[in-house]
User: Fold this.
Amino acid sequence: MQNSSRLIGKILLLAVMTATIGGCFGRSTKITAPTALSYPIAEWVLTVGQFAEIAAPIVLGDAPDIWTVAPTLPLGLSIDSITGVISGTPEQECPPNFFTITASNFGGETSVSLTIQVHPEAPCDLVYPDDSVQILAFTDFPTLHPTLACGPSNDYSVDPPLPAGISLDIFSGVISGSPIISQPPTLHEVTASNVSGSASFTILIEIVPAGPCDLVYANDDVVVSPFAPMDPILPSTGCGDPDLWEIDPPLPDGVSIDAASGVISGTPAVETPRIVYTVTASNEHGSDDAEIALRISPVFSYELDQISGEYDPETGEGGAEVRIILTEGGDNVTFPTQILMLSLALVHDTDRLDFTMVTPGQDLTGFNDGQGPEFFGHFETPTGFTLGIVFSFSADEGGLTADVPREVAVVTYSTIPDSFSGDEDGVASELEWGNPSAGDPGVPSVGNTVVLDGVTGIMPVTFGASLDLVPTE
Assistant:
């Protein structure tokens, strides 16, 4: 009992002493929360496949007991919950993202944001199935698909540029196309890139020049008139450019083929039946052939026949009339051929004559129950006039045949008095076919044409005339 009393007394004494000593000489056991959490580098750019370590941020206050992060770090990275160090090898690309790092202990917690972005791994081991390609121009280039290791790429480039006609898809790296020019053996370096780096592959490409192909003449069955300039017959080709043009058999006198361009032109000096010619366009790499049929024959002709022409020598006043005659050549395979339309242009000496009028010829008066052609219209030009005649707008209704000479129009001119006054000897004035003012503003481009079926137009042979005007007694 006495011992128990002593123990209780010691306990009370210790309590009193503790209470007395506290305050000035005692130490508080309260834990404070971390504060002033910060990263020296707040934005990090990492690369897939490359180890990275981000040290824990600087903190004040009592040391953290645990570190956490939200949201979850990119795949391959982790945070050490004791030290706050973020480390690892990123495994996938990740856009810039904010991550909240939180440090905590029994006293509380504090947080700070950190930006992490993960770039893809740089491309590597770029390979194409062929490292050397040799093909002819204007043939299909073999489509080449690349293979690529490490990081992806949608940014392909090539240096020097590929030959015209061959292209590189900048997103997929596929090379394809059809070259339209030749090229000596040339090394082309293809590069696949991304934000982290690049990989390259070199391809040797040679484009061998091609021979001509697809030779064609726009008009390959032509009838032209003799003794008059023919419209040039123009060719076109594909593939390689021809260096030489040849034709077999030889063309008729007056007609030739340009050995450099293949254009057939000239003024035929003879008549021929329909002849089929073979034209060959060639260069050192090959050739191509085409056939063209040519017939030289006076299928149709325009002639002038003077009716009258006189003037008063004192006043110079007078006039003249001229008939326009259309005739079809008898050797035409469709003779007599139905003609649906005509056009013509006639020029006179404007210093001596004025155009007065043009009227339908006597061979046209019977059309449409005596009403004449369905259309008969002229246009006066600075040097003469043009005339269009439509016998029928429908081939079924029938047109004109010129198996014998047909008077299709009568032209009337009046004299310019100053040019004839006082002339007692008579005057000759030339009439010529054509319209030299065609193309001028307001002047139609009408030429001399015989239209057979509403589509097929043939240029006739034209014969000019000297219009004789004599003084009256």
Notes: Residues 1-28 have pLDDT under 50 and may be disordered. Residues 295 and 396 are 28 Å apart (CA to CA).
